[in-house]
Each structure stands twice: as C-alpha cells, then as structure tokens.
Design brief:
mainly alpha; 191 residues
Length: 191
C-alpha cells in the first residue's frame, strides 16, 4: 500500500512538473518573440531617425537633437541585442519543452504502475531516480509557471487576470510602449 501511494504521489508531482515545464517553455517562447519584435522596432526607430537629416526632411528638432536620437537608438539596439543574446530565450524554451516531454513519458509509465496491483519498491525507486535525472537536465521553471499550472488545475478558483499573468501583462505594456514610441518618433520626423 505504501508503494501504491508513493507511486500516486510521484505521478502527481511528475504531471504537475511536466505542465509547469510546458508553461515555462511557452513563456520563454513568448519572451523571445516579443523581445525580437521590440528589437526590430528599436532598429526601425533608429533607421527612421537617421534618415531625417540624410534626406533633409523637415522636422521641428535641431540637427543635434536628431543626431542624439539616432545615437541613442543605436545604443539601445546594441544593448538590447546583447541582453537578448545573454537571455538565450529560444534555446532555453526548446530545452524546457524537451524536459516537459520526457516528464510526460515518465508520467505515462507511472500511470501503468499505478494501475498494476503489485508494484515492487525497486520500480518506484527507479522511477523516482528517472524523475530527478530528467529534472537535472534543464533549469527549473519560474514561479509564474508554477502559478499558471496551479491555476489551470483549479479552474473554479481562477480570477482574472491570474497572478501568473501580471508579468506577461507588464512585459506586453513595455513592448507596446516601445512600439508606440518608435511609431511616434517616426510620425514626428515625417510630419
């Protein structure tokens, strides 16, 4: 009986962790996409500002101010590119997704063990060892991934917006602000 309850508890942990890793992979993938778009809009802003004096377009700003804007956007693009390279969101997302898939395979094996009336303690120990080996292959999921998984498992307690989405919302607002700023500067210079 102890082994059966241990198998059920391990199965619960494996399934929960697998879902959290999938949420982490999704979060990192979105972070990568929004980061790339932000970088693209910063580069567009830099190019647009640099084109104003080159094309002798009419604007309400002095040439020094326009040059400062072009240099400022250039520094932003460079710094943001370096930060994106350090974050490595795309490959981290792939690794986390792979970890979720391995945990899902282990969960299917544990389902079979859970339905078998007589499971030896050795099989439980082997499955537990596999679980920890899989976990050691990639970084742990973030707290917001845990919260998103927990919320999805308890839909009746879900409030809008879920606590785990506050970071996504803040990141989206920052991204939208950068887009609006780039577009606003472009409109000012071409007006």
């Amino acid at each position: 009986a102890t082994t059966a309850s241990s198998i059920r508890e391990l199965l619960r942990r494996v399934e929960f962790t697998s879902k959290a890793r999938y949420n982490g992979a999704r979060r990192l993938g979105l972070h990568n996409i929004f980061s790339q778009w932000t970088l693209a809009y910063l580069a567009i802003g830099q190019i647009a500002i640099s084109m104003v004096p080159a094309l002798k377009l009419h604007n309400n700003f002095s040439e020094n101010y326009t040059n400062f804007g072009a240099i400022f956007f250039g520094v932003l693009v460079l710094a943001y590119s370096l930060l994106l390279g350090m974050g490595n969101f795309s490959s981290r997302s792939v690794v986390m997704h792979s970890c979720g898939m391995e945990l899902g395979n282990l969960a299917r094996e544990l389902h079979l063990f859970d339905q078998t009336p007589d499971v030896s303690p050795g099989r439980y120990e082997s499955a537990a060892k596999d679980y920890y080996q899989i976990l050691s292959k990639c970084e742990n999921h973030a707290h917001q991934d845990y919260l998103a998984t927990n919320s999805s498992l308890k839909l009746n307690e879900l409030a809008w917006p879920p606590a785990s989405n506050h970071r996504y919302i803040a990141d989206f607002i920052a991204w939208a602000y950068a887009v609006a700023l780039s577009f606003g500067l472009k409109v000012l210079h071409f007006a």
